[in-house]
Amino acid sequence: MTWIRGGPTSLDSQNIAEAIDGSLHRLGVDYIDLYQIHWPDRYVPMFGKTEYDPSCQYTSVSMEEQLEALGRAIDAGKIRYIGLSNETPYGMMKFLQLSKDFQLRSKLLTVQNSYNLLCRNFDSGLAECCHHERISLLAYSPMAMGILSGKYHSSYDCGPPEARMNLFKGRYSEGESRYKLQSPKVKLAVKEYTQIAEKYGISPATLAIAFVLRHPLVSSAVFGATKLRQLYEVLQAARIHLPEEILAEINDVHTRFPNPCP
């Protein structure tokens, strides 16, 4: 990522300090309310990988150094609260333990991980951590990069050419490794979720967003909209309540096609 400070390779204290100062300058603000580490500076299976391989571990910046840098920014009034992203239960609990050891003035408040109908890994381990430690999930990719709208599987040409997975094909390896458009399991799961939405008279996009928002540990869903109708579908999702019969049908599909996009 050479466009970010020449391509930093680690989350060392210098990079964290430069990133914070750069954001303050570009935003033209005195402080940042919530500052999150984008992903772990250590080996973690993610973006389609599910099995931990100890041999893949590499020398990385310690969590202690990261927290010291964030603590200095908090003490300087540059940021108020901190969060994590793409984290594991181990990582979250270790950061919490160290933040108490360092007596940080601001508590760890959030974790921003993927959560959607095709990826419910959060419920397996992180959910318990978040519940007991009072940490909120900021659910990113609630639409699974638009796949849950059904647009990629509504025709034989893999969706409209202006759709993100087509427009930037080959340029987003993390997304493409997780959201495999040609996967039979993904196709079947999306088809069934789309049929549930149609059965109850709502759009597939609204169903997908509403499912994420009904989770008691989700405080926000991070979405993107390029058209007004897409924004309308998201706003509709914030207004509806999914009854138990819809959730039962969703869970039935999930049982048969569990987490095809981990």
General description of the model:
One of its GO terms (molecular function) is oxidoreductase activity. 41% of the residues lie in helices and 10% in strands. The protein has ten helices and five strands; from the N terminus they run H-E-H-E-H-E-H-E-H-H-H-H-E-H-H. Helix 2 links the parallel strand 1 and strand 2. Helix 7 (184-199) crosses helix 8.
Topology:
Elements: H1 13-27, E1 32-36, H2 63-75, E2 79-85, H3 89-101, E3 108-112, H4 126-133, E4 136-140, H5 164-167, H6 173-178, H7 184-199, H8 204-213, E5 218-222, H9 228-237, H10 244-256
Parallel strand pairs: 1-2, 2-3, 3-4, 4-5
Helix pairs in contact: 1-2, 7-8, 7-10, 8-9
Classify the helix fraction into a percent range: 40-55%
What fraction strand?
5-15%
- The class by helix and strand makeup works out as alpha/beta
Total of DSSP H or I helical runs spanning 4+ residues? 10
Q: What general outline do the C-alpha atoms trace?
A: globular
Overall pLDDT: 92
How many DSSP-defined strands?
Answer: 5
Order of helices and strands: HEHEHEHEHHHHEHH
Q: Report the C-alpha radius of gyration, rounded.
A: 20 Å
Question: How would you characterize the largest beta sheet?
Answer: 5 strands, parallel
Rounded to the nearest angstrom, the distance between the terminal CA atoms is: 24 Å
